[in-house]
Amino acid sequence: MGSVRSAVIRGMATCLQRAGLTAPVARAAAYGRRVAAFPVLKYHRVNDEADPFFPALAPEVFERQMALIARTYVVLPVEELVERTQRGTLPRNALAITFDDGYRDNLTHAAPILARYGLSATIFLATGLIGASHAPWFDRLAEAFKGTRADGYVAPWGQVLPLDTLGARLSALGQMQDYMKQLSDDELQRTLEMVQVRLGVSEGERRKSSMLSWDDVHALRGLGFTIGAHTVSHPILSRVSRDRAEAEIRESRATITSVLGQAPRAFAYPNGKPADYNTMVSLLVRDAGFSCAVTTRFGVNTPATPPFELRRGGPWEDHLPTFALKLALYRLTQA
Fold first, then answer.
1. Mean pLDDT of 219-224
2. Count of CB atoms within 10 A of residue 305's CB?
3. What are 99-133's pLDDT values in tens digits?
4. Is the pLDDT of residue 207 over 60?
5. Domain segments of the chain: what residues?
6. Distances (CA, A) of 307 to 67, 98, 100, 203
7. How far, in Å, are 31, 134, 215, 261, 301 from residue 210 at the CA level?
8. pTM score of the predicted model
9. Taking CA atoms, which of 49, 164, 175, 251 is between 20 and 30 Å from 198?
10. CA-to-CA distance for 333 and 39, rounded, in angstroms?
11. Second CATH level (architecture) for the domain 2-132+210-333
12. So what's the pLDDT on residue 205?
């Protein structure tokens, strides 16, 4: 049923594009709600490596999406959209573009495309990873499953995960990522070390860090990026102590302020699902001086959306007409 529905949507989207109706449908959707609403798109990597262990959007796909957005939407930083929503001056066709974590290809591949179309974006930095030689835990986990010579792995829940094909390795990686996201941060780090040992992959075998340097961050600012905070070390904040959560939030903001001379106003919760933050964490973000925070909860944002629980996501279709149609329909149908 899902494949049939996807095929129908793709066919409709293609027909609308061929008829020149994509932009009119998007404009109609913007005015179809009783109140204005804005989506926040979320990206991570943009490169042409085609590495299934480190998924990325191809630059040519990203460029087609940005060209469409530039023709159809008013793109503004997240924090400005929140302010305009509160003042009642939000453009009907507003949209925000964001990136998480701080990957260097955001500068080398995404930023030139955004600059070409005059589009702004916000990048949320895990400050402890900027200029560091180590990657986020989930990339280190992926590197272990990619580089191991083992043909199987006994998971913590007792299941033997085969590793004899590419598909099996990717499946095992996905299962381990899902499992580890449920752990406390200390347990997560111990489990990561155990996986690396059992798979026979040491830290020294990892590829060079793919994260930005602080010089790169300065360059992004020069290209029109707004800088937001994403903690120091990317822990899931609901699974650490209050003191640790506060330190991660405040120290990430202080580091960005010190390096760039301007305090970030927007924050992104690591992972960002409803179970990954809570009321205490949101209050810590507010009290640290931020004006808003983004989640990865699906939907669009209206005056009724709490500014520290902004919805964020996106229709991640490579097929441009489908991307355009879903972006329009989500604005009309999602709360």
1. 94
2. 19
3. 999 999 999 999 999 999 999 999 999 999 998 87
4. no
5. 2-132+210-333, 137-205
6. 28, 16, 18, 39
7. 41, 9, 14, 25, 32
8. 0.93
9. 49
10. 12
11. Alpha-Beta Barrel (3.20)
12. 45
Cα angle 72, 78, 84 (rounded to 5 degrees) comes to 80
Question: Which tokens go with 44?
Answer: 């991570």
Beta strands in the chain (DSSP E): 40-43, 74-75, 94-101, 121-125, 152-154, 160-162, 225-229, 266-268, 292-294
Neighbours of 212 (CB within 10 A): 25
The distance from CA 12 to its chain's CA centroid, rounded to whole angstroms, is 28
Query: What is residue 241's three-state secondary structure?
Result: coil
Least confident of 56-65, 239-248, 260-269, 314-323: 314-323
Contact (CB, 8 A) for 58 and 43: no
Helix then strand then coil, in percent of the chain rounded to 5, is 50, 15, 35
Strands (E) in 149-245, as ranges, are 152-154, 160-162, 225-229
Q: What angle (nearest 5°) sits at the alpha carbon of residue 83, between those of residues 78 and 86?
A: 125
Q: What is the 3-state secondary structure (H, E, C) of 267-308?
A: EECCCCCHHHCCHHHHHHHHHCCCCEEECCCCCCECCCCCCC
**32, two tokens:** 């179809």
| Rounded-to-integer distance, Cα 130 and Cα 232, Å | 9
Closest residue by Cα to residue 78 from 267, 275, 272, 284: 267
| Tens-digit pLDDT profile for residues 19-40 | 877 777 777 777 777 888 999 9
Spatial distance between the Cα atoms of 68 and 75, rounded to a whole number of angstroms = 12
State the Cα angle at 263 between 90 and 94, rounded to 5°: 15
Map tokens 């793709």 to a residue: 10
Place of tokens 């301007």: 262
pLDDT at 8: 73
Residues 260-286, mean pLDDT to the nearest whole number: 97
| DSSP conformation class of 212 | P
Asked if 324 and 26 count as a contact pair (C-beta separation under 8 A), the reply is: yes
Please indicate whether residue 22 or residue 218 has the higher confidence score (pLDDT): 218
Identify the bridge partners of residue 294 per DSSP, sorted by sequence position.
Answer: 268, 310
Confidence of residue 5 (pLDDT cuts 50, 70, 90): confident
